[in-house]
Amino acid sequence: MSALINLAKKKIVCLGGGIGTSNLISGLKHYNPRLTVVTSMADDGGSSGRLRKAYGIMPPGDLISCIAALISDDNKELRSLLTYRFPGNSRDNKTIDGHKLGNLIMLAEILRTKDIYKALEVVKKMFGVTADIFPATDERVHLGAMTKDGRQIHSETTLDLALYGEPHGLDKVYLRPKNPRVNKKMIENILDADVIISGPGDLYTNQLPVLIVPQIREAIIKSKAKKIFILNVANKPFETKGFTLKHFIEAIVEHLGVFPFDTIIANNNHSHLIPAKYKYSYIKIDKDLDDHTLINVIQGDLVNEDFPIYHNSQKLAEVLMKEI
After folding, report:
1. What count of other Cβ atoms lies within 10 Å of the Cβ of residue 64?
2. Radius of gyration in angstroms for the set of CA atoms belonging to the chain, rounded to a whole number
3. Is the pLDDT of residue 45 over 90?
4. Which among 323, 319, 199 has a CA at the least distance from the CA of 251?
5. How many Å apart are CA 191 and CA 195, to the nearest integer?
6. Burial tier of 58 (Cβ tally within 10 Å: 0-12, 13-18, 19+)
7. Which of 75, 107, 292, 310 lies at a C-alpha separation of 20 to 30 Å from 127?
8. pLDDT in tens, 26-37
9. What is the rounded distance in angstroms from the CA atom of residue 35 to the CA atom of residue 316?
10. Is 15 in a helix, a strand, or coil?
11. Could you tell me the pTM of the whole model?
12. Is the residue at 188 inside a domain?
């Protein structure tokens, strides 16, 4: 009981986006920490990207996914409603086909209030969510990349769907603008955090687009918090194909100039068969991390047996509770 009380007092900042962050906070919410969630604003595909293009708004998808993940388990129907996706796949950005209901609710609030933060507060209150949820930037950003063979890629969707033409792979990602505006309270929350967590999530399209925001990078490095990196369960085809733990560390050092995390949490249960159609493979944990021997690597069974490319949110939360 004392561990639960202590965790409830902890100020935890989760950085990233996508399914990985949603799974993480879905498990953490049961321990009632003081959560701050920061999500990338580089998304330009799917329902979120279509609304971004059609209405000139910040992409709402990851913000809504976080709100849905934090809805009480007593209201699973409400969560399903918020994440309901209308059938169809229209190319017309303003038709309802393929849009997620939560994205449309957020769009309506942004248009009504003319302020993304006011819209966030209204939607959070509507669904009983109290955590601080921030866009990583206060303006829309575009994600670009250089491939290892020297080509430039100019959109998050191209990277996410591997439309850049593997096998050469990615060298480095960057944001335009390079130094976007950010919310001061979000930076204060990072500096004041007891624990900062990055991941799980796609390295180049979810995690790095948050970590490379200059003011966020500086705040993470400056913060005295315990800093945890959660290694993905499996490698995404093309994006991190063949990566081991060491490659993730090296990629972060390449982008930030330092690996700011003191602890890595990694899944070591590779016994569940990943369906071949997904083309994912388990990430191997290097026995020798060379210059990174001071990093504490926590290994355990964290896999979701029903869909083994992801973490089990409850297993992950339990391990984090012990480390925090």
Report:
1. 28
2. 19
3. no
4. 199
5. 10
6. buried
7. 310
8. 999 999 789 999
9. 16
10. strand
11. 0.92
12. yes
Is residue 282 in some structural domain? yes
Tally of domains within the chain: 2
208: Cα separation from own chain's centroid:
9
Tokens, residue 78:
């409400």
- Residue 283 sits at the vertex; the CA angle it makes with 277 and 285, to the nearest 5 degrees, is 165
- Examine the pLDDT at 173 and tell me if it is beyond 70: yes
Three-state SS for 174-207 is EEECCCCCCCHHHHHHHHCCCEEEECCCCHHHHH
SS3 state of residue 210? helix
- C-beta separation of 112 from 129 below 8 A: no
Average pLDDT of the residues in 209-226: 97
CB 19 within 8 A of CB 304: no
Expressed as residue numbers, the domain containing 67 is: 43-132
Length of the chain: 324
User: Is the distance from CB of 144 to CB of 174 less than 8 angstroms?
Assistant: yes
pLDDT at 166: 57
Given a contact cutoff of 8 angstroms between Cβ atoms, the answer to whether 235 and 283 are in contact is: yes
CB-CB contact of 75 with 90 (8 Å): no
First to last CA, the chain: 15
Same domain, 7 and 96: no
Within a domain: residue 224? yes
Question: Which amino acid, 186?
Answer: M
Least reliable range by pLDDT among 117-121, 155-159, 238-242: 155-159
Indicate whether 215 pLDDT > 70: yes
Q: Of all residues in the chain, what percent carry a pLDDT higher than 70?
A: 91
Over residues 81-97, the pLDDT tens digits come to: 999 999 887 666 678 88
Q: Both tokens of residue 28?
A: 């953490």
